[in-house]
Amino acid sequence: MNFADSEVVASILGESGFEKTDNINLADLILVNTCSIRDNAEQRVWGRLDLFRSLKRKRPSLIIGVLGCMAERLKEQLLESDKKIDLVVGPDAYRDLPSLVNAAGEGHKGVNVLLSREETYADISPVRMDTNGVSAFISIMRGCNNMCAYCVVPYTRGAERSRDPHSIVKEAKDIFNHGYREVTLLGQNVDSYLWKDSETKAISFANLLSMVADISPLLRVRFSTNHPKDLSDDLLYVMTQYNNICKHIHLPVQSGSSSVLQRMNRKYDREWYLDRVKRIRQIIPDCTLSTDIITGFCGETETEHNDTISLLKEAGFDFAYMFKYSERPNTRAARHFKDDVPEDVKTSRLNEIINIQNHLSAVSKKNEIGKSFEVLTEGVAKKAISGPTMTGRTSGNKVVVFEATDVKPGDYVIVTIEKATSATMTGRISNQ
Length: 432
Hints:
The structure is a single chain. The protein is of the alpha/beta class. It folds into 4 domains: 2-112, Methylthiotransferase, N-terminal domain (Rossmann fold), CATH 3.40.50; 130-246, Transcription Regulator spoIIAA; 248-367, Transcription Regulator spoIIAA; 372-429, CATH 2.40.50. 35% of the residues lie in helices and 21% in strands. β9 and β10 form a beta hairpin. The radius of gyration is 23 Å and the shape is globular. The two termini are 37 Å apart. The model has no long low-confidence stretch (mean pLDDT 94).
């Protein structure tokens, strides 16, 4: 989502005469688009700002800005730090960047961290900053209303609001016409997308997904992130109706324990989640499933940890993003719960979860050996098999490496899988 926001920022600044450079020593303006979802993300930003401060010592006219969630959460600390920061701009204030940059150039601090209930940047055509020219992101909504106990997003990105579906379809068409072959629709909770106006009947996420998929059968459509409490059978049935809607769902569980989920304020329990997994398997048997897991949340017992282990095995995730709990200031968890799981216990539990998931991921990919998949080519593989080697993804979001001499990024090829690890599948182009 930050990548998509950075493309909006590039468009806004481009209209004011700025050009992007890959050479930091040529930059007149450096902006860091930040994330606050984990402490580690913020610590990396502080480290990066040290580098930029040293550049500013050599070139005092250099303007340095912090954008996004850290700007929203830590405005005073950023302005009062010794990092030589000139701009602090929240995620709903990017339209003000040109005037704020001008103010900074005149020696004034540029600050705007006001959150909006309307801003979606729907009328801005993002400047595509990806390198492969194949895949692009489209934000379909902003903010979040879920108030999960551990999460800072509602405080840094504000209330949930959906974007005009016609602007989304227009952007997707433009992407396709410029040669892109895959779009990912982004939202904190895409399942709660809902658009209403005086002239249009209510459009749900399932409706929107159909509208984007109808652009062309050559345009793959992905989406993220789903929320288990809102994932509907209607959406699953729409996915079965279109070959170009990718058969992959990212469904964060966070914990396999109903008691932990209640403390997290996730608004579903273990049984509800597993029922959603069951419906996915019933309606879309070939759908891959990924998840997020937080281990060591406040008060987590060994029994609750084991509940997560058993859910991992029962759900059989194809891949997962796994983290230790990181307390975020001013969240519900920080206000009402004690971060009382020792760090070494968090680490031990996380390592156990990672080891189990690595095994599940390896099994998932090895089960594909001998099968053929349509693969969207993304580019040249980092490691060659023997001759020229390309990489791409299946509809299920599994990475495939294959030899090819006359295939370019954006091409669809049929690949038969011959080998697999927990991370990658290797195959050969076939005519099947």
